[in-house]
Amino acid sequence: MASYEFLAGSYDALTTDVDYSRWADYAQRHFGRLGREVHTVLDLACGTGSLTWELARRGYEVAGVDLSPDMLAVAEEKCRGLEQRPRFFCEAMEALRLPGRVDACVCFLDSVNYVLQPAKLRRAFRRVWEHLEPGGVFLFDADTPEKLESMDGQVFLDETEEEFCVWRGEYSPKRRICTFWMDIFRREGGMWRRGEELHREYAYTMDELELCLRQAGFARIKRYGELRMSAPKEGEQRVFFSAVKGE
């Protein structure tokens, strides 16, 4: 089972609970604290480009990067009508290669957890550092180990009039990986088409993520609670990080 090949066509319908405008607001609050203007933004692991679209609509020059060509195809179509259209690149995080530097990079919706090897994540963070302008900011969030562990044995349903998705979670303490099996049914005409997907997330501790940032060269590293500008509380299931490339 591949990741995002079938899901790309249903992703937006199954994630209507994600308020991308609120996530863009959150990124902009961090931009405002930076002490320098932000004009160019990298949306790393941009998926179907909903946040990319929202940032570009607000006047930023945006580049979207994702490993899935199927998700990028949806993103390209979504952003087609924008006056300042984003550029999209199909690349892995650890092999990031853009034609220039950016003022800020965002990597949201637990995308870093999808990097299953710490060595690859260190390389990805270093590539982000190299693509930031001096003084630029890197923002990302991560699912906590507690959240991923709690998904072991859980079954979840997502349903619309045109899509139906069943996904099951299994957590391996030894491998520190949570595996999600997804069965997706999509209405096409008078028929239902079935697709299968397999997704995995690695349970990084917050200290491990901070160390990866420091090893990549970042400074002024701070942690935040979910979509808040204050420190995370105990038991938080999603933690945000901001890190700055030194001048």
Q: What's the short version?
A:
The protein is an alpha/beta fold and 247 residues long. It contains seven helices and eleven strands. Helix content is 27%, strand content 35%.
Residues in helix, %: 25-40%
Low-confidence stretches: none
Number of strands: 11
CATH architecture of the largest domain: 3-Layer(aba) Sandwich
User: Structural class, from secondary structure content?
Assistant: alpha/beta
Q: What is the average per-residue confidence, as pLDDT, rounded to a whole number?
A: 95
Computed over alpha carbons, the radius of gyration is 18 Å
N-to-C CA distance: 44 Å
DSSP strand content: 35-45%
Number of helices, counting only DSSP H or I runs of 4 residues or more = 7
CATH topology of the largest domain: the name is: Rossmann fold
Instruction: Please write the CATH class name of the largest domain.
Output: Alpha Beta
Q: How many structural units, i.e. domains?
A: 2
Give, in spatial order, the strands making up the sheet with the most strands.
3-2-1-4-5-11-10
Shape: globular
Quaternary status of these chains? single chain
SSE ordering: HHEHEHEEHEHEEEEHEE
Largest β-sheet summary: 7 strands, mixed
Describe this structure in words.
By secondary structure, the chain is α/β, with parallel strands linked by helices. It folds into 2 domains: 12-143 and 205-245, 3-Layer(aba) Sandwich (Rossmann fold); 147-202, S-adenosyl-L-methionine-dependent methyltransferases (N-terminal domain of TfIIb, Single Sheet), CATH 2.20.25. The chain has 7 helices and 11 strands. It has helices spanning 11-14, 20-33, 50-57, 69-78, 118-131, 145-150, 206-216; strands at residues 40-44, 61-66, 87-90, 102-107, 132-143, 155-159, 163-172, 177-188, 191-202, 218-224, 238-245. The strands form 2 sheets. It has a 7-stranded mixed β-sheet with strand order 3-2-1-4-5-11-10, sandwiched between helices. A 4-stranded antiparallel β-sheet has the order 6-7-8-9. Helix 4 (69-78) links the parallel strand 2 (61-66) and strand 3 (87-90). It is globular, with a radius of gyration of 18 Å. The model has no long low-confidence stretch (mean pLDDT 95).
